[in-house]
């Protein structure tokens, strides 16, 4: 992590990921980027459906490959790059046939290293294999939920899932949330842990950096008026005044189970995630 001299109040607590010595390119590959409009929490009618989103710096979208459909063709990492749309580092991979694609990088990989998508690939960081070929205890990322459906699980910075069992056509994966879930053994996964593991240790230091990121302020309910929130109103500081915690719209938010009781994926969950402060 990079710390700063306390030249101002915001600098005193500010910490950032040290990109020097990690990133090797300052500009993205032009053929793999395009402009796009962020929805910033609005629906197709322009109404806010998710609070605290809006503004922020304009971004270019990097087309990251999560399908990995070039089988048995070696690829070499040409650069390690920053992506404003995700927490992990991405890398420019050039395949043996000349095609270039962006991929999410695992930890400790650097330019010049190579990876392979193959059923017979070695258990090396970045290589991609079917779950049935990965031994118990291995850390994986970029995991598919349906065979050849593209990576959906384990794509954020510093994240990994762990193979805990292989039986009856399914692989049991321990998720970052501590949930243990059955996934078809024909799904593919990459070996290793996602890069930029220090991402969650950042301290923005000032409100302005949050605004640059597109994060708008969050106001406490108890600081509002009664018309705006169930916790609002009262002379001075008041407790919430109701038995159960509620959202701005009066919905119970603490202690009520929100998962659909008959959800299709219930049969694939071996052990539910542990909730609370200690995971």
TrEMBL record:
Keywords (A to Z) from UniProt: Ribonucleoprotein, Ribosomal protein, RNA-binding, rRNA-binding
NCBIfam families: rplB_bact
GO molecular function: rRNA binding; structural constituent of ribosome; transferase activity
Full protein name: Large ribosomal subunit protein uL2
Record-linked InterPro entries: NA-bd_OB-fold, Rib_uL2_dom2, Ribosomal_uL2, Ribosomal_uL2_bac/org-type, Ribosomal_uL2_C, Ribosomal_uL2_CS, Ribosomal_uL2_dom3, Ribosomal_uL2_RNA-bd_dom
Description of how the protein assembles with itself and partners: Part of the 50S ribosomal subunit. Forms a bridge to the 30S subunit in the 70S ribosome.
Chain ranges passing through the membrane: none
Large ribosomal subunit protein uL2 C-terminal domain sequence ranges: 123-252
Pfam families given in the database record: Ribosomal_L2_C, Ribosomal_L2_N
Annotated spans, Disordered: 220-258
Domain Large ribosomal subunit protein uL2 RNA-binding residues, every copy: 41-118
Gene that produces this protein: rplB
Keyword RNA-binding: yes
GO biological process: cytoplasmic translation
């Amino acid at each position: 992590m990079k710390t700063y001299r306390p030249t101002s109040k915001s600098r005193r607590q500010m910490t950032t990921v040290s990109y020097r010595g990690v990133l090797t390119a300052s500009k993205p590959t032009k053929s793999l980027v395009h402009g796009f409009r962020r929805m910033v929490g609005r629906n197709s009618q322009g109404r806010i459906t998710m609070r605290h989103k809006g503004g922020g710096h304009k971004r270019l979208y990097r087309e990251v490959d999560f399908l990995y459909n070039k089988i048995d063709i070696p690829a070499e990492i040409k650069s390690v790059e920053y992506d404003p749309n995700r927490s992990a580092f991405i890398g420019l991979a050039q395949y043996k046939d000349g095609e270039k694609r962006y991929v999410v990088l695992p930890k400790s990989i650097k330019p010049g290293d190579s990876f392979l998508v193959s059923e017979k690939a070695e258990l090396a960081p970045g290589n991609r294999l079917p779950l049935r070929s990965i031994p118990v205890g291995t850390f994986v990322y970029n995991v598919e939920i349906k065979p050849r459906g593209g990576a959906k699980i384990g794509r954020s910075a510093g994240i990994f899932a762990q193979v805990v069992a292989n039986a009856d056509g399914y692989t049991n994966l321990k998720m970052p949330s501590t949930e243990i879930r059955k996934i078809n053994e024909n799904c593919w996964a990459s070996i290793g842990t996602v890069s930029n593991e220090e991402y969650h240790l950042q301290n923005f230091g000032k409100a302005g950096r949050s605004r640059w990121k597109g994060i708008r302020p969050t106001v406490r309910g108890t600081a509002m008026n009664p018309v705006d929130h169930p916790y609002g109103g009262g002379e001075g500081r008041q407790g919430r005044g109701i038995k159960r915690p509620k959202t701005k719209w009066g919905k119970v938010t603490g202690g009520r189970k929100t998962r659909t009781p008959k959800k299709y994926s219930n049969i694939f969950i071996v052990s539910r995630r542990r909730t609370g402060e200690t995971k």
